[in-house]
Amino acid sequence: MSELQNVNDQELVARAIDQARAAGAAQADAVLVRSDSTEVKVRGSEIEYVKQAGERCLGIRTLVGQAGSFSSAVTSTCDLAQDAVDRMAAETVALARAMACDPHAGLPEAGFAEEIPDLGLMDARDRNATVEARIEDARSAESSARATDPRIDNSEGSQAGSDFSEIIYRNSEGFGGSYASAYHSLFSEPLASEGESKQRDYWMTVGRRMADLEDPAVVGRKAAERAVRRLGARSVPTCEVPVIFDGLTAPSLLGQLAGCLSGYSIYRESSFLSAAMGETISSSQITVIDDGRLPGGLGSKPFDGEGLPTRRNVLVESGQLQSWLLDTYSGRKLGLPSTGNASRGAGSGPGVGATNLWIEPGSGTLEEIIADTERGLLVTELIGMGFNPTTGDYSRGASGLWIESGQIAYPVEEITIAGNLGDMLMQVDAVGSELVWRGRVAAPPLRVARMTVAGQ
Amino acid sequence: MSSAQTAEGASQEALSFFRKRFGVDESSLEATLGTALERRVDYADVYFEYTTQDSVSLEEGIVKNGSRHLDQGVGVRAQSGERQGYAHSDEISIDSARLAAGTARAISDQGGTNSPVALQGQGGPKDLYPLEQSPTDVPIETKVALLDEIDRYARGLDPCVKQVMASVITQHKQILVASSDGTLAADIQPLVRLNVQVIAADGNKREIGYEGMGGRYSLDRLMDPENWQRLAREAVRVAKLNLDSVPCPAGSMNVVLGPGWPGILLHEAIGHGLEGDFNRKKTSAFSDRLGERVAAEGVTVVDDGTLPERRGSINIDDEGTPSQHNVLIENGVLVGYLHDRLNAGLMGAAPTGNGRRESYAHMPLPRMTNTFMLPGQDDPGDILRSVDRGLYAVSFGGGQVDITSGKFVFSASEAYLIEDGKIGAPVKGATLIGNGPDVLTRVNRIGNDLELDRGVGTCGKDGQGVPVGVGLPTIRIDDLTVGGTEG
Predict the structure, then answer these.
(1) Do the beta carbons of residue A380 and residue A315 sit within 8 Å?
(2) What is the CATH number that goes with domain A124-164+175-228?
(3) Rounded distance, CA B407 to CA A288, Å?
(4) ipTM of the complex
(5) d(CA A398, CA A387)
(6) What are the chain A neighbours of B486 within 8 Å (beta carbons)?
(7) pLDDT digit string, tens, across residues A260-314
(8) Domain extents for chain A?
(9) CATH of domain B7-243
(10) Nearest residue, CB atoms, B434 vs list A56, A74, A414
(11) What is the value of pTM for the model shown?
(12) What are the C-alpha distances in Å from A334 to residues A69, A262, A389, B340?
């Protein structure tokens, strides 16, 4: 993307705010998201698709009325012709006038990011990677998966993707900033067959820089090993046992917890943790951190969706709840300052989002935790949406490996695991030492002392 | 703008929109397809989309958020054998379409030429969703007033109601598809939706209740007090019911599914596994099983995109193929898959009108429309009375399936124990899990009370969401695994 383009986009964002002000907005902000992406998929020895795209989208938020009783609205448009942007800015103001006054609405009063640190969110050299090179990565993962085991006889394919984007944000209070980032991924999903049993599984690697990705051959091999070990999976009789979540499934528990710590669910009292600030909400082995400035982090950004600096927040320290995740609005509702967790895309107003969120690693490998479990379940995949954030009730479909006498005995499927997230967190009695980032949320292996496993 | 009474009318109106606004006409489309066809490709298509979506939402007694989104773009696809090249841009113009065509055709490594394209406009049968006025043109103040009324009404229903959240979402989507086989088709697809959610409290206990409705019809339908009052009453009833619910027992049980939304079982357990892409690649638990028995006698399952005004209905799919009534399982035997053009072509079958995409930023995939089971003879009350001890599930949150192993799961949002053939205590957190290819073989009673859902379903696949519908009569399934906390 040329420098000239960048200057034009900066001007477009500034113009949207000027037009909103001219139409009567007391405050306004705008965000322009520009990205270009490539995605390829290889299945067997054949290319399945090559997809290339460029996108530019502008989001505008306006606030009308007096401070302390603003009403607000947001719009977005992918039509970035000057007259379309002018029209949209005016429409946003008209829309805001139709909304109710809200004493807590408004841009942050102060504290905008003063410097924009380089967080290592992309490697400019990766721009030179060709489509052919990404096809080669996918091809290599695919052939490695198929060469791992003769029982790998089919696949859903291997996908490689690269996305480069730039965020330009500006508001009427004088803050303006932009940053560029990249996201590269490689994903492989082979199928294993033996007799009547047919199983799939996957492995993936993601990073801000190509150099951060695992070797394609390793991605294919790990995916294949995971698919093969599921062959012959069966259900188990209903029972109560210790349940271990591996590094791929444990982050989903943390993601659910993060939703229950979002300022919006707290002021609405729709979280089972609404009244738990300062209390012990988990085993003392759990410490949860959100840090938007982790170098090269997949959730890192120099400023949040409202222009406030991102920072490190300790949400849970040794089991004690210490902080919510807040943007300016939900913070004001709770009488607290923002935690720098406003997330914002072109298509929506600010909301709360974790940045890089993780559970601090403990001690012991996954193998050691398994060896320390007399009888139980290792969960390697979860399906379904059985979680109620208001009560914490948890019930999901699972597949994984059964543990007998501290050893993997056989693969299991067609079972559910159920409990309550609050109880599950209190009952975590082992936290592993391995923390691998495959997204913005990461967790080491966790063992919950007791859950209901439902099967035959 | 005048009303479009036939699909031809809707098609003409959309064609005229893209021509007047963006200069997209037949000769420029033929030239764009010509660019895609400069290499040796078997097929090429170009897809234009212009979508306006408005959303207004209420919480804490005030309408706080209003939004309007304009999404537009063009995507060009070139196909050579099993390979597809796709490029898209959010600028609608013939220039950007030709640029995308140049990128997409790179999928073919062979030079060559194809004969020029001559586009033929297609008119369809009657329009499934004719509207006098686009729901996005209804003044915002009307939507705000509706939400305010819902808030007052819901709060007045019961003192345990602590929080009301409601939203109204309206969409106006215009699409145009032109392809190298001469297809030129266009459509206007309206969509409306109303959501009501309440939080009820009793002492320290809090629970959520939700009800929604929607479809491809006028906003007037949602403004009808009979409809929005029913939504509010349902949301309050479910929240209060959840306050009184007991933990769900775990284990294998005989299950009765109520009519309507529990049809999500068909969507997860059967529908996805019958999509053409998985079967062409033989990665589905249903691969190579056409002609085999996959359900009990009497079970007939269809996917029908031609039902008037339904959320899952479409006049044409996103490849220009008219939607159809497709029988998937007939009297227990697997008889059909769901196809887009690519997979139908590679499998020697005909497209079934199921090539759908979320937007111009995505390639089409075989997707469901409205999926349901035809009614049987049994009286629903008799079906309940036939179960000594089991679970009666009447509403669900969501579900998921592993296509390859066939294992599916879905979560009940309203379910009761059945004791001695009678509906007993409400249970919370019931999750049903099973195996797609054999779950329907254990259906042993089919009610005469087929209902379609109320129009709130969105199906996700490969990161693409599309609106869908489901339907079911009351049915009894034996020996289904129910996940709960009570061992």
Answers:
(1) no
(2) 3.30.2290.10
(3) 33
(4) 0.91
(5) 13
(6) 452
(7) 999 999 999 999 999 999 999 999 999 999 999 999 999 999 999 999 999 999 9
(8) 124-164+175-228, 233-456
(9) 3.30.2290.10
(10) A414
(11) 0.94
(12) 17, 11, 19, 50
